[in-house]
Amino acid sequence: MSLFIRRWLLRFIFLAAFAAIIWYFVLPRIRPPLHEGERYGIDVSHHQGEVNWEAVAGDNITFAYIKATEGEDLVDPQFGRNWRLAGSAGLDRGAYHFFTACTSGATQAENFLRVAPPQEGVLSPAVDLELAGNCLNHPSASVVANELDVFLRLIEEAWQLPPLVYMSDEWEELFPTSDRLHHQMWRLNYPFRPSKEWQIWQLPPYVTIDGIDGRVDLDVMAQEK
Length: 225
What we know:
The chain is an alpha/beta fold.
């Protein structure tokens, strides 16, 4: 191997090691600066395992959205524990439902309201609209839109609060939704703040938070109006 090649190989190894250090040790601890009235939170499901909520609260996290249900009958196995202990640790809590494009909105609303009935002193309920993990043989966009409208209406009637809406770009491309809705939005964007109006800004799951094994979504909540 020539000296020239060895030098370039050493440079490549050095840069790769440097990038790995940044990715695994630096980026997970970086948080975007907050504007006036904003605060940090997270969103979790059973994928985060058993969360130590006291440690989470001690890491400057003040709110959490917790997965309650999915589709017509799935209940997140960690919801009850997460809801109880997050509240005990002093975090503001909100429950969210993963909406399935292949199931009626009314049935999904029943599932969510059975597990997360209206409760005072908590955050607005939320609905998660994304294709990852959703059904494949879905009906037409118009049918999905109608079922989503039913779901949102039933949740709002029960809670007397308009649900917060999380929507992936892939969902919006397949089921154009955002122009029809008049709900506060929970938007994913990185590394810059979303250009469209938002109530919650979610960053990709590269963040480490005390009390959680592995990485988790970091959220920023705007000042509540």
